[in-house]
Amino acid sequence: MDNRDEVREFLTSRRARISPERAGLPAGSRRRVPGLRRSEVAALADMSVEYYAKLERGNLAGVSPAVLEAVARVLRLDDAERAHLLNLAQTADGSDALTCPRPRRAKGQWKARRSLQWTLDAITAGPAFVRNGRMDILATNQLARAFYRDIYATPGNQANLARFQFLDPASRRFYPDWDRFADVAVAILRTEAGRTPYDKDLHDLVGELSTRSEEFRTRWGAHDVRPHGTGTKRSHHEIVGEITLAFQGLEPAAEPGLTLTIYAAEPGSASDEGLRLLASRAATHGAPTPGAAIRDELRPSPPSRPRTARSYDLKRAV
Length: 318
Prior knowledge:
single chain; five-stranded antiparallel sheet; elongated; 14% strand; two-stranded antiparallel sheet
């Protein structure tokens, strides 16, 4: 991920989406490029065309915060995009990302503190897990392992949410809003690339997904970034069916660069009931462990009980 290429493609893609009308300029005629011209961005940002052209060629080394803010203002960058631009500028200066420093530890080198695992285990009403910026799931409570059972069912996923999203056919069932969450996954990885441009594990993951998934490759080329701190997620779980959960992402003070995500269902809703059922089954049958394959079998109830749709229990062999 060459920094100059990143800067050039990011600024070019943001410029292309701003129409002259949106920028308060006349559309004119014979426009050969989408969005604003370089000269128009330069004029609106109060700098020379030559200087802005240098920025868009990828040279952000030594650029002042005031200049970066002027470019962000003209290109109508949101908070996540502004942060990404600042990160790219910090990398060009040869220093760490300004907005959110990230550890460069490989997944295999990180182990949850006992106190963190105790905290996760104390959360029993909803799935809770810790991930890094590459979307590796690093630690979970029992309900999160049951919720993400499809990810652990295929050892090749390596408990990575992005790899599951783009390379595992099961993700199409698990995410009814597949396109939406595919966009989110790529935006998270693109944001992380701006924060940790020298992360070899991230480079390898992006290379693998780009090679094996056209859906990923197309989205990666869009250079979209976004925070993923809160929202709702609709999932179709093989055991309990469709559930809609709210989520909150938090950064543990003792683990900078990692995200603790907690899911919760609206109290009294059908999703709440489904989550309770999933928690009950996870407590009874146990939840899958990372890397373990899962096999589901239907076990008939004893003959003495009425044979109904609820007369079958799901037996899990891990």
